[in-house]
Specification:
The chain is of the alpha/beta class. It has a single domain, classed as Alpha-Beta Barrel (TIM Barrel). The chain is 46% helix and 15% strand. It contains 11 helices and 9 strands. Helix 2 links the parallel strand 2 and strand 3.
Length: 295
């Protein structure tokens, strides 16, 4: 199982210089991918701009939104931005996509939230035509640049609903499960059911091979960082009101609990686990890198 890492997950105060240095450390370390969440009504950096910045200062690590909320965006512009980052990074871009679930993001983007699943599938089809060099429609010519390998980046689709899971198996190259605050062993068992649904839909679609299965793990190094990460998770879900303020968040933060989490995900067939620290402190990525290198 590969181990990736995300930019500090939900701390709005992340500074640009920390983001760039974090990308450099991720590339120098043992991590397979560098990821970032996508939200509009929140204090995070724009995910595609962050990925472009990371592409400029890295040479090895894959770059992956987890996940880009496609229905907030225009499909042609999104396809061009994605192909640009893929080209600049030399084909290291992995496109994690999802339909989104936060009404305030859709209000801010002036995008319809209704029927977003149908629109999402139309966007995937349009982007793949663009990446293949085909005209978007009869009166619109090809849209460049050419992606690094011609067909566009690997596409992982996220979501937890039955429709999203089956869509991932039908239309994606793989699936990505978001992290949660429950105990990692319990979370892994939940994610396992998602993996099996995706695999079933993949087989039913008659696709060869198998989907790539990815999951996120909220984590930290040390108790202080774990406490801060739990606080930031509650802040992220503040739209849920009192339920968010009182939610119990389990954050693996010791060698023992991290090893247990890794083992739980490896046992369910996870191909890549993305560590998602919540504290914007360079020491966090350094300590996690040392740990992962020794596992």
């Amino acid at each position: 199982m590969e181990i990736g890492i995300a930019f500090p997950k939900v701390v709005p105060a992340n500074k640009g210089d920390i983001l760039v240095e974090w990308a450099v450390r991720a590339d120098e370390g043992p991590f397979s991918s560098l990821a970032q969440i996508d939200r509009l009504v929140y204090g995070n950096h724009d995910v595609l701009i962050a990925m472009a910045a990371a592409a400029a200062v890295t040479r090895r690590v894959r770059l992956m939104p987890t996940v880009l909320i496609a229905p907030l965006r225009n499909a042609a512009i999104m396809a061009k931005q994605v192909a640009s980052i893929d080209s600049i990074s030399g084909g290291r871009f992995v496109l994690g996509l999802g339909v989104g679930s936060r009404p305030d993001d859709f209000v801010a983007a002036e995008a319809p939230m209704k029927a977003r699943g149908r629109r999402f599938e139309e966007q995937i089809a349009a982007m793949r035509r663009i990446w293949a060099g085909e005209p978007l429609q009869e009166d619109v010519g090809p849209i460049g640049p050419t992606a690094a390998y011609g067909k566009g980046p690997e596409l992982l689709i996220g979501g937890r609903s039955e429709a999203a899971l089956r869509r991932s198996g039908r239309l994606g190259d793989g699936y990505i499960a978001g992290s949660a605050g429950s105990a990692p062993s319990n979370q892994a068992q939940e994610v396992m059911s998602y993996f099996r649904t995706v695999e079933s839909a993949w087989r039913e679609a008659g696709k060869p091979g198998k989907p790539r299965l990815v999951a996120g793990l909220t984590c930290a190094w040390g108790q202080y960082a774990a406490d801060r990460t739990a606080e930031s998770i509650r802040s992220y879900y503040s739209f849920r009101g009192e339920a968010a303020r009182t939610m119990e968040v389990r954050v693996p933060s010791t060698p023992k609990t991290l090893r247990e989490a890794f083992r739980a995900y490896e046992e369910i067939g996870c191909d890549e686990l993305i560590l998602e620290p919540g504290l914007a402190d360079i020491d966090q990525i350094d300590r996690l890198a040392d740990f992962v290198a020794g596992v």
